[in-house]
């Protein structure tokens, strides 16, 4: 119901912008394009049988140049960015025949998860330099090392390892055809939420580009919460770690003792 109301509101906005005309005596100053977005839900509940989900985002453009719109000069990039936290990458090396952690690097306040959809390949929309300036895209997320001292020769190695690990774990994802225009001014985007999506408040961001230049952006919060027994266990582990650890050990002892009774051979 909430999504239907939002879509209807978007349609109501279109005639006003599409029907705007220049009249003699009016100022000819260009009006900047506008962007509005809405999500199919404002909250994702994580249960024991959660295996991932798709998040749908609807959006509308206003004050667009109809000629540029007709020839495909407007592009939209939509991102779901997870909670930010420090992340440590460790490198294992063989020392005396044993694999041990020899070096590590911690990156400051990076998104735990990152899912991106765009109207076409992101590198075809805007230059890599502009993507870096805006921090848009997996390859352009700022990865700033904490307390780094050195010549920077291994920075690229650790940054690439971090991106590879996040993508391999399904936490970083991109879809170059996940945004499509359903009418001249309305678009629909789909973002994949992984099964291991982190708990917390995420941010949905939409970026509008015109002829390769950034125009504007909009953002909305998305809350991801664990429910049921999963949330109870998580809260106990964080709020009372000692009690949680004792309970885990006790449960393991009882389970082992019970198994020995069941499979004991008299």
From TrEMBL:
Signal peptide: 1-20
InterPro entries named among the record's database cross-references: CHP02186-rel_TM
Protein's name according to its UniProt entry: TIGR02186 family protein
Record has Iron as a keyword: no
Chain ranges passing through the membrane: 242-263
Keywords linked to the UniProt accession: Membrane, Signal, Transmembrane, Transmembrane helix
